[in-house]
Amino acid sequence: MQPGLITSWSEHDSHVQGILLLAKRTLRIFDENLARLGLERAENALILRQFLASDRNNALQIILRDGEPFRRNSPRLFRLLGDYPASMIVVECPPLSGTPNDAMLIADDCHALIRFHKDQVRSKVVIDSAADCQSYLFRFREIQNEGGTVISATTLGL
């Protein structure tokens, strides 16, 4: 996996999986609805399960602009959310000022895949560079601080 610019969906998908495999402690994801990242694919869901199972201190944070597709179309990820509620959080963010149109996948604060526009493949990959990930981490935390609605794997009610 070479750092640099990505211009095809096959490269993008390969780098998603590569970043997931590099994660040892944290995964932070900001995306429209996770559809383009392909985390619901069996192989990626298995990588996420292994990541969460490997250490109870591992953390997976997902912030979505639109949580409805996740609720409807992500049974594998919902199962993970139910199995690892202390390690995984999914939040649907409120409408953000300036509405960012990018997507971020950040592992261990030093590996990242940044898609410049949520609907286009053009992306940047960063491998083993905390300095290059710093501005994306800052943006992720800003979005996180906006709050939102936590998506739960359990249904509350009577």
Topology:
Elements: E1 4-6, H1 9-22, E2 26-31, H2 42-54, E3 59-64, H3 68-73, H4 75-83, E4 88-92, E5 103-107, E6 111-115, E7 123-126, H5 130-145, E8 149-151
Parallel strand pairs: 2-3, 3-4
Antiparallel strand pairs: 1-7, 2-5, 4-8, 5-6, 6-7
Provide the descriptors you would attach to this structure in a database record.
158 residues, alpha+beta, Endonuclease, Chain A, 8-stranded mixed β-sheet, 5 helices, 8 strands, globular
Describe it for me?
The protein is α+β, with helices and mostly antiparallel strands and 158 residues long. The protein has one domain: Endonuclease Chain A (Endonuclease, Chain A). The protein contains five helices and eight strands, in the order βαβαβααββββαβ. It has helices spanning 9-22, 42-54, 68-73, 75-83, 130-145, and strands at 4-6, 26-31, 59-64, 88-92, 103-107, 111-115, 123-126, 149-151. The protein has an eight-stranded mixed β-sheet with strand order 1-7-6-5-2-3-4-8, with helices on both faces. A hairpin with a 7-residue loop joins β6 (111-115) and β7 (123-126). The mean pLDDT is 90.
